[in-house]
């Protein structure tokens, strides 16, 4: 742990309590990871360029939340925000002072930007040898594409994932969430944990080089040996054929217009038939074994299509789940967070915005023994904590803060 003053606001003890993070990441690849660190107890100080933003506007109940606002509420919580111009010498001096009292610098800037700003790892380690710098970029720090800009969808395409994602209609399909950004953030957090452990042993920090493309390639896991050793080229899978060839499998329309998804491996075949009220199918010669079900899949699917239309998706889900058969009704995001299991696990967090509107976000899925969830800190307006952080953490005087504001090195808005 870096030897510095306690966090500005003492929170209940969490695993990373006492760890301080400077977060200069933007958008999703980076902020998703620093949000996790903040939830786990780290003091995260978000550094944004000037100008500071006005205070959070008043929001009326029921007012729509834009995508940009959604990113603020979901990814800038658990953090304080300061506005610092890193292109100015005075701004860099403030940054260096923060680094002396910091454990981790977290960024997702393109290769070369840190060096131009003189806040790269080689520079920062001379200021604080224990500093851990974690960079998330599209393609990493070296290679022919190192300086190429990267969007999540481009990385999904380059990784090979889009070649076998979709319903086989010929149009490559991306994931419904920016999985390239999010996966890179998750790997970055794991790397940070390992670097902290290594620092405890060696006393020295280090630099982490996380590539979105690398992370997407790693997700292919067992598909890689299948591809190179067996000569398989994966394409968009049948929506009704499992990875291990399970049949029946996939989505079926139900009587209420909703869909239910099933995954019936051989050990579930007999319980499945009993649960849907068709026990005779279990011993039908056409479907008794996995091989016979695969051979007669079209016939079995047609029978099940007609069968599922007799009741609602919710009813089938309840019946099959009670029998231990893997099943799930296809839900919207709203329905997913309001289903009983998500409610029991307290998987949403509600913030009250200025003006009274309630804004719901996803909670952290990390749980420790003896707890259900932990409070999240609502997001600050950009730059809202500038003067408080610098005064309390760096002991800057009112005169020093005034001079920095006059020089344009910091901005606290109307503060």
Q: Just give the CATH class of the largest domain.
A: Alpha Beta
Averaged pLDDT = 90
Biggest sheet layout: 7 strands, mixed
CATH topology name of the largest domain, in short, is Rossmann fold
Calculate the terminal CA-CA distance, rounded to whole Å.
Answer: 32 Å
The CATH level-2 architecture of the largest domain is identified as 3-Layer(aba) Sandwich
Overall number of structural domains: 2
Can you give a write-up of this model?
A seven-stranded mixed beta sheet has the order 6-5-4-1-2-3-12, sandwiched between helices. Strands 7-8-9 form a three-stranded antiparallel beta sheet, covered by helices on one side. Residues 1-11 have low confidence and may be disordered. Helices cover 36% and strands 13% of the residues. Helix 1 (31-39) packs across helix 7 and helix 7 (179-202) packs across helix 8 (212-218). It has helices spanning 31-39, 67-75, 89-100, 113-117, 121-127, 152-158, 179-202, 212-218, 223-230, 269-275, 290-295, 297-308, 313-322, 333-338, 340-344, 386-393, 398-406, and strands at 20-23, 43-48, 79-84, 104-107, 132-137, 207-211, 249-253, 259-263, 327-329, 348-352, 358-362, 410-411. The chain has two domains: 20-219 and 351-411, Rossmann fold (3-Layer(aba) Sandwich); 249-338, formyl-coa transferase, domain 3, CATH 3.30.1540.10. Strand 1 (20-23), helix 1 (31-39) and strand 2 form a beta-alpha-beta unit. With 415 residues, the protein is of the alpha/beta class.
């Amino acid at each position: 742990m870096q030897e510095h003053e306690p966090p500005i606001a003492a929170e209940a003890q969490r695993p990373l309590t006492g760890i301080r993070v400077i977060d200069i990441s933007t958008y999703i690849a980076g902020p998703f990871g620093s949000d996790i660190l903040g939830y786990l107890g780290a003091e995260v100080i978000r550094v944004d360029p000037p100008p500071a933003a006005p205070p959070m506007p008043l929001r009326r109940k029921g007012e729509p939340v834009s995508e940009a606002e959604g990113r603020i509420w979901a990814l800038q919580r658990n953090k304080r925000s300061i506005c610092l111009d890193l292109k100015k010498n005075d701004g860099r001096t403030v940054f260096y002072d923060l680094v002396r009292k910091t454990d981790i610098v977290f960024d997702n800037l393109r290769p070369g930007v840190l060096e131009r700003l003189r806040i790269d790892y080689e520079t920062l380690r001379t200021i604080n040898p224990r500093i851990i710098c974690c960079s998330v970029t599209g393609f990493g720090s070296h290679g022919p594409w190192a300086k190429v800009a990267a969007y999540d969808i481009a990385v999904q395409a380059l990784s090979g994932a889009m070649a076998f994602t979709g319903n086989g209609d010929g149009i490559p399909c991306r994931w419904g969430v920016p999985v390239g950004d999010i996966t890179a953030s998750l790997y970055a957090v794991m790397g940070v944990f390992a670097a902290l452990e290594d620092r405890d042993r060696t006393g020295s920090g280090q630099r982490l080089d996380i590539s979105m493309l690398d992370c997407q390639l790693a997700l292919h896991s067992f598909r890689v040996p299948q591809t190179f050793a067996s000569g398989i080229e994966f394409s968009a899978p049948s929506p009704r054929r499992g990875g291990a060839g399970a049949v029946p499998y996939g989505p079926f329309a139900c009587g209420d217009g909703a869909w239910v998804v099933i995954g019936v491996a051989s050990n579930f075949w007999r319980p499945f038939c009993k649960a849907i009220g068709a026990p005779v199918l279990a011993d039908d010669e056409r479907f008794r074994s996995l091989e016979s079900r695969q051979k007669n899949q079209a016939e079995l699917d047609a029978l099940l299509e007609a069968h599922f239309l007799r009741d609602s998706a919710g009813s089938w889900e309840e019946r099959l789940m009670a029998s231990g058969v893997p099943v799930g009704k296809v839900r919207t995001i709203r329905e997913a967070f309001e289903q009983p299991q998500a409610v029991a696990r307290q998987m949403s967090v509600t913030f009250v915005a200025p003006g009274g509107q309630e804004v719901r976000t996803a909670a952290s899925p990390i749980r420790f023994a003896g707890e259900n969830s932990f409070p999240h800190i609502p997001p600050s307006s950009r730059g809202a904590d500038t003067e408080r952080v610098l005064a309390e953490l760096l002991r800057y005087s009112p005169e020093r803060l005034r001079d920095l504001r006059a020089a344009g090195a910091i901005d606290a808005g109307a503060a």
